[in-house]
Amino acid sequence: MDGTVRTMSSSILLPLADVVAILVLALALYWPRHRRLDLTMAYLAINVGVLGVSIALSSTSVNAGLGLGLFGVLAIIRLRSCELDQHEVAYYFSSLALAVIGGLGASMGWGAIVLMGAIVAVLAVVDAPVFARRYRSQSILIDRAIADEAALRARVEQICGGRVVSLTTRNIDLVDDTTLVDAHYVVSSRRRADRMTSSFDRGASPIAESPWSPASVSSVQPQAAPSHGSSEVPQGANRLA
């Protein structure tokens, strides 16, 4: 009797824990940091859907292979819909893992809740802005074919204004004289400060920079018509000219 009550309480507690975990993951971690509404909705919907499928599988006599196969099919469908960055893939599989644990982890007891908390905590730490504040990754198309790695690294550092950590050459086109590279670099503190200062200066006085501001318009003085000797150019001829 006690075992039945414990099983029923786990079957109710784990889905509630999954709902809390996915709300924290999607609304408290992903949305404030990345601001993508489409993926936030996708994480919530996928988690709830996989949770329902996992609960249904746990109440029927199916083997683990069918559940893992369904898990793989859902992953393939979602990943083939659009291209995702690596941090978005991490959030996606975390939402799937939370749903599977919430639906099939009744036998684990409190260990399932601890595992859910560990997944959320790991993403909260590794995706913190303090770690990725100065690190950047870009695909750069350079308007010159550079085969020498040292020269290519120096050119990329000049473009990015930082120290290149990893550099991968994707394509060197000798016909169009271009080089395509994937660069991972660290932005220097001075470069970040210069960018922030320049962006602040550009946004501080947009009217003064506008060519149509009252100050710039009033400063334009009309030019006198060119004179040819002692004769004056008629007003109508000036307008035609």
Question: Percent helix among the residues?
Answer: 55-70%
Total of domains: 2
What is the helix/strand order?
HHHHHHEHEEHHHH
Terminal CA distance: 104 Å
General shape: elongated
Q: Estimate the mean pLDDT confidence.
A: 74
Q: Biggest sheet, strands in spatial order?
A: 1-3-2
Global Rg:
31 Å
Please report the total strand number as a whole number: 3
Spans of at least 5 consecutive residues with low confidence: 195-241
Strand content: 5-15%
Describe the main β-sheet briefly: 3 strands, antiparallel
Structural class: alpha+beta
Number of helices: 11
Question: Can you describe this structure?
Answer:
The chain has 241 residues and is α+β, with helices and mostly antiparallel strands. It has helices at residues 2-34, 37-58, 64-79, 86-104, 110-126, 129-132, 149-160, 189-204, 206-209, 214-218, 235-240; strands at 135-142, 162-173, 178-187. The protein has two domains: 2-130, no CATH class; 134-191. The chain is built from eleven helices and three strands. A hairpin with a 4-residue loop joins strand 2 and strand 3. Helix 1 (2-34) packs antiparallel against helix 4 (86-104), helix 2 runs parallel beside helix 4 (86-104) and helix 4 (86-104) packs antiparallel against helix 5 (110-126). The longest helix is centred in the N-terminal third of the chain and has 33 residues, at 2-34.
Which key features would you list for this structure?
241 residues; alpha+beta; 2 domains; 3-stranded antiparallel beta sheet; 11 helices; 3 strands; 64% helix; 12% strand; elongated; disordered C terminus
